[in-house]
Design brief:
- It contains seven helices and seven strands, in the order E-H-E-H-H-E-H-E-E-E-H-E-H-H.
- With about 210 residues, it is of the alpha/beta class.
- It has one domain: Flavodoxin domain (Rossmann fold, 3-Layer(aba) Sandwich), CATH 3.40.50.
- Helix 5 links the parallel strand 6 and strand 7.
- The protein is globular, with a radius of gyration of 18 Å.
- It starts with a strand and ends with a helix.
Length: about 210
């Protein structure tokens, strides 16, 4: 089993999403000691935003300057890591009703026609089927119910884009209301960690 572990929170040791992804991966590893884990910290190892030059670069990179070639190779490596993974664990805090730009930049490197999706006469088809995606979703407020749910462009986007890639087995471990006081923050984290500790994550990736 291959696990891809992605963190994107910018708060370092204060990041709740990092705390939760660590707990999730630890549970998965405990259940499958032989699992191979690939880790990327998108906050400290920043992914350059997508450019036209990257998209237009020739497949063999012939004639491409060194900086652009290195950038394209990084993107290709990230794509191969994603394609090779059986289970993908993503830490996704909500920033301004959406996801961190670092996480969006990583996703942009995965969205490659012929690799994670293709267009057919019947419409688009995802090519990354069979994977499991577990998202540690953290939010300052409560966005899982109306009326604030209309402002959720975090979980809705992640479900849509990975669904477009063909991934339908998507689960969210959620900690909400983290900015609504110390007691609420502690409660939200405890509930999320309880879900993980009770083995539900292992069921998700079974």
């Amino acid at each position: 089993m291959k696990i891809l572990h992605i963190d994107s929170g910018i708060l370092g040791e204060h990041s709740v999403s990092r705390r939760l992804t660590s707990a999730i991966v630890s549970q998965l590893k405990a259940d499958r000691p032989d699992a191979e884990i690939t880790y990327r910290d998108l906050a400290s190892e920043r992914v350059p935003h997508l450019t036209g030059a990257q998209i237009m670069a020739p497949a063999d990179l012939e004639g491409v300057d060194a900086a652009l070639a290195a950038d394209v190779r990084i993107g290709r490596q990230m794509l191969e890591e994603f394609l090779a993974a059986d289970t993908v664990v993503v830490g996704a805090p909500m920033y301004n009703f959406s996801i961190p730009s670092q996480l969006k930049a990583w996703i942009d490197r995965l969205a490659v026609a012929g690799k994670t999706f293709r267009y057919t006469e019947a419409g688009p088809e995802g090519l990354a089927k069979g994977k499991k995606l577990i998202v540690a979703s953290t939010r300052g407020g409560h966005y899982s119910v109306a009326p604030a749910s209309a402002m959720d462009h975090q979980e809705t986007y992640l479900r849509s884009v990975f669904g477009f890639f063909g991934i339908t087995d998507i689960e969210f471990i959620r900690a909400e209301g983290l900015n609504l006081g110390a007691d609420q923050k502690q409660f939200a984290i405890a509930e999320a960690e309880k879900t993980i500790a009770e083995g539900n994550v292992l069921k998700l990736a079974s």
